[in-house]
Write a structure and sequence with these properties.
By secondary structure, the protein is of the alpha/beta class.
């Protein structure tokens, strides 16, 4: 059997900025074209028996520039369909889903023309390509060349080498990607005990040590000082995730003057696109309570330490990180999608450490009335905090890393 050469296309504007580029048909940059030309001597030094190329222009242009002829365009060589993550960088995704890893966590659903693929679907395409490679080797002399895309070629390499698949599902309700991919492996791990997947073992959500080791009481005054808050006043943390939540932001925007008047300060993480004129730091002259709006917080453990109560969405990270540090939360599940956020929150709510509030009920009136009512009963907040003990596993990151090492050894 001859050699198999895998060629990833040259640079594009999107790849240069780190944006996931699946089915979006972007051309090479001039640097990308130069990268391709550098491979000409390598290709000329080998006898090429067959060459297959993805139909996307960045791959076809690369193939032509490196001097390949008689190209066989194969749709199975297209890049991973990133669905809702098309055009989004890994850093942006991990702000919403800390620890996100494409090969185990899959992608968010996209529009009908590119709904997204799970690892199993990409693997099936890779297997079809490898069958064509074997047929080409059997019928021609020389090397076979595949010109395609980075993530697809990684999957193809893993399939060729027989590498195992490890899945970790973050939410209670698994997405389609992991439902399908779980059929291809017995190494399936979950954050929540209720998640239904073949071979599933609940190990918890991998969380950074800065959060699992957090002593909120010890760091409270320091953290409040870091956010320019009053060191001793009760503090509400508000966050709708890395991109913010319009419903929550609107409700808090209409309620914070009343909260400050009642001596409750607000640390409001709006999301990068939502910190607009009108959202400004304000101090109530009578009570000293502070309204502190921020676009984004890099070290959420500091925000957790500063707070006595949180109002926010119920993505898996928020639910289990706040449970890990013992921070009571009023959860407002995102109402669009398959309902996974409400299911995520149930673990904490049923334990007595949180409250579930429907998105439609999250209004300025509710916030102005019910948040002060909660702060008026510190024993209740303390009881909610105590109820969170043991709800979240603190060793999930270590356990998952150990399981992965066991699989690859």
């Amino acid at each position: 059997m001859g050699d198999l050469f895998l060629v990833r296309h040259g640079e594009t504007e999107w790849s240069r900025s780190g944006r996931h580029t699946g089915l979006t048909d972007v051309p090479l940059t001039e640097r990308g074209r130069e990268e391709a030309r550098r491979l000409v001597p390598l290709i000329r030094s080998h006898r090429i028996g067959a060459a297959f190329v993805s139909p996307l222009q960045r791959a076809r242009e690369t193939a032509e520039l490196i001097g390949l002829h008689d190209l066989r365009v194969d749709v199975d060589l297209q890049e991973w369909d990133y669905g809702g993550y098309e055009g989004v960088t890994t850093v942006e995704i991990q702000r919403e889903r800390p620890g996100w890893f494409l090969f185990s966590d899959g992608v968010a659903p996209g529009p009908p023309d590119h709904p997204g693929e799970n690892p199993g679907q990409v693997g099936e395409r890779a297997d079809r390509v490898l069958a064509k490679v074997d047929a080409a080797h059997a019928n021609t002399e020389g090397c076979v060349v595949l010109v395609a895309h980075g993530h697809f070629l990684r999957v193809l390499t893993a399939r060729r080498l027989g590498l195992p698949i490890v899945i970790h599902e973050q939410n209670v309700l698994p997405g389609l990607a992991n439902k399908l991919a779980a059929r291809l492996t017995s190494h399936v791990f979950t954050s929540f005990p209720r998640t239904s997947l073949p071979h599933a073992q609940c190990i918890g959500l991998p969380i950074r040590h800065a959060i699992t080791d957090l002593d909120r009481t010890a760091l409270r005054r320091e953290s409040r000082a870091g956010f320019d808050l009053h060191p001793d006043l009760p503090t509400l943390l508000v966050s709708g995730g890395s991109q913010g939540a319009l419903r929550i932001n609107t409700a808090v925007a209409g309620a914070w003057p009343e909260l400050l008047a009642g001596g409750i300060q607000v640390l409001h993480i709006l999301g990068p696109k939502n910190l607009v004129p009108g959202f400004e730091r304000t101090t109530d002259e009578r009570t000293g309570a502070v309204y502190q709006p921020l676009a984004y917080v890099e070290q959420m453990e500091r925000a957790y330490a500063a707070a006595d109560l949180m109002l926010g969405r119920s993505g898996a990270s928020t639910v289990l990180e706040t449970a890990a540090v013992g921070l009571p939360v009023v959860f407002v599940p995102y109402p669009v999608g398959n309902g996974e956020q409400a299911l995520n929150a149930e673990l904490v709510v049923n334990a007595g450490g949180g409250i579930m509030l429907a998105d439609a009920d999250c209004t300025a009136v509710w916030v102005a009335q019910e948040i002060p009512a909660l702060f008026a009963h510190p024993d209740r907040l303390a009881g909610m905090s105590n109820a969170l003990a043991g709800v979240a596993r603190l060793d999930a990151a270590t356990v998952l890393a150990s399981r992965v090492l066991e699989v690859i050894r």
